[in-house]
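User: I'm curious whether this sequence folds into something compact or stays loose and floppy. Could you predict its structure so I can see for myself?
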Amino acid sequence: MKKLSTPLIWRWHLYAGLIIAPFLIILSITGAVYLFKFDIEDYIYKDYYQVEPAETRLPPSDLVNTALNTVGGGEATRYRPGEDDSRSVEVGILDNNGDSLTVFLNPYTRTVLGVINDDTRPMELLADAHSELMAGTLGDRLVELVASWTIIMILSGLYLWFPKSKEKLKGVFTFRFNKGNRVKWRDLHTVSGFWLSGGILFFILSGMLWTGFWGNGVQQLTTASGFGYPPSIWTGPAPESDTVTKEIADVSWAAEQLPVAESEMFSGVNQASINDIVAVAESTKIHPSYDIFYPGSDTGVFTLSTFPHQAQEEATIHIDQYSTNVLADYRYDHYGPLGKFMALAITIHKGLQFGIWNQIFGVIICIGLIGMVVTGFWMWIKRRPKDHMGAPKSKSIFHFKGPLIILVILGIIFPLVGLSLIFVFLLDRFVIRRVPKLNKFIYG
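Assistant: Here's the prediction. I'll summarize afterward.
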């Protein structure tokens, strides 16, 4: 199959690379910076985060009222006590204008340290650029499509790289810098691609878990396949609810599809104080970096959520807003094998699981991917004839059973790839091949 299909694989590798190259550079740059999100925010907001510990903390309810008065009213949506004695308290508020704000307070003195509009946080904007290209649902689908085609590009690149029996190690596993510019650029592209391919595939697949189409499908499949939520996490029977946890709180990936039980309303009983909910949170012994999300309705629940740097410390807890009974307690130990793998993959993707070494590894992958894009584009520019794209001539893919079957399988696993293949086929058949100049430029 090698002799027959190598030109075809090369064509697909070239065209895919040229189309997705700009997006890969954007995703790599934003991803490399986002690996240091917590370090950057610790520096930017150091005056908001750090407080001098004292003997007595004020009640959470007092701090929430202070925050609401500071912004002129609104609705409290989130409370974060802080993970240690020197960390400020955060109160999330939906103000009267509909803006999402975070108020930082000294829990010992009630001093307001600062107010931030959550939508304008630099790292939130960066995350939006990385995950959605700042284009909402359309951007999310585009990122997923680019990621899916990057997988195809990596696999096709490995196929083209695969050494022949007579080749030596140099130029296959090691660089050759003394063989002229053409060989040097080729080795920088292909040898780097080989050594980085595993890391790139890992970061792409783990990043796709956040996508709205493929990632959501994997979540549902994980739950439906028996790797979902064990009955033991609920104090009663599992709720039959159309509301899932990601709709009411910011939680870990594994808990996003967790059904939400309703709080049991009693006549004359008011919602529990945030003081009581903090006391319940402390009794559960979850990681101290937790957030408390307020109920969104009369039957809603308080949700405790923490997904710190180590996946093993993730937790999502639902609390009845009237009785303060724990309705669900879902932690890493409850995850199935697939859920645990996904949780670890996500924390590694975010550069958190293994500290600075994790961040360094991520930066190397991002820089390496940019380097592969640049070297590949430079080689194409140097080799491309003036009058056409410069891809080798090849028969249609329908003449090659192996590559066709692989593309069909990838189109099923990644549905957006399948849709894009149909689009490319129709574009080729009814547009490119019917316009002589365009046909000559693309196919030579």
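Summary: Residues 19 and 214 are 21 Å apart (CA to CA). Residues 230-335 form one domain.
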